[in-house]
Every structure is written in C-alpha cells, then in structure tokens.
UniProtKB/TrEMBL annotation:
Domain Coenzyme Q-binding protein COQ10 START: 14-52
Organism: Hyella patelloides LEGE 07179
InterPro entries in alphabetical order: COQ10_START, START-like_dom_sf
Protein name, as recorded: Coenzyme Q-binding protein COQ10 START domain-containing protein
Lineage per the UniProt record: Bacteria, Bacillati, Cyanobacteriota, Cyanophyceae, Pleurocapsales
Pfam families reported for this sequence: Polyketide_cyc
C-alpha cells in the first residue's frame, strides 16, 4: 500500500432483522442521518434500476478539524 492510500476494517454488531440492516446499509444517501462521521452524500450518478454504476461523493468528518471528500 502506498503512503497516499488508507484502508481500514470495521465490525458492526446490530440487533435487528437482517433485511432491515441490509436495507439501511445499502441506503447510502441516508448515512448522514445515523452516522455522525458522514456529513454529506453527493450523488454523482444514479446508476441503473439495479444500482449498477451508482456513484457517490461522501464528505467525512473526523475528530481532527478537517473534512475528507473526493
């Protein structure tokens, strides 16, 4: 991995029906409502009816006073 790449692993434990969890995780546009680190999701391309080629540009906020986006 080069110095300008970043990779992380996260584990989520959610007590809810599988379908509800899956639908929530796949609904990227609503991440800012329940994930404090996501400030905004800008939809760049809606993709097709199956979600193929759906492209977003998220804005992330961390503990330090800066934001990350594409």
């Amino acid at each position: 991995m080069s110095v300008n790449e970043y990779s992380f692993v996260t584990v989520w434990k959610i007590e809810a029906p599988l379908r509800k969890v899956w639908d929530t995780i796949c609904d990227i546009k609503h991440f800012p409502y329940w994930w404090k680190a996501v400030e905004n999701i800008n939809v760049m391309d809606k993709g097709n009816s199956n979600g193929i080629n759906f492209i977003t540009e998220p804005t992330w906020k961390g503990v330090l006073p800066y934001q990350l986006s594409r």
